[in-house]
TrEMBL record:
It comes from the Bacteria. This is Uncharacterized protein.
């Protein structure tokens, strides 16, 4: 996948849409990949292989590989610009 990015100003509303658009794009790409070939992914802390016909096979339990993180970083908030009126 290739992405083109340029420096542009975005509003707070557009910044808030980026995570939702990323989730939608990933879900669409996953559906296309699983329709054309066999995919392997993690579902409910289980490694699952999904074939083209929709059959799922559990390969391995990966729950011991997950690590609990104590200090989750908070979302950065955009500072409001103060404009002086003349």
């Amino acid at each position: 996948m290739t992405a083109y990015t340029s420096v542009m100003k975005a509003s707070k509303f557009e910044d808030d849409l980026i995570p939702n658009l990323a989730i939608h794009a990933f879900r669409h790409a996953f559906e296309q990949a699983s329709a054309s070939s066999t995919v392997v992914y993690v579902k409910g802390q289980q490694l699952v292989q999904r074939s083209q016909n929709g059959q799922e096979i559990q390969l391995k339990d990966v729950s011991s590989d997950f690590v609990q993180i104590d200090g989750i970083p908070h979302r950065l908030k955009r500072k409001k610009k103060c404009e002086e009126t003349i």
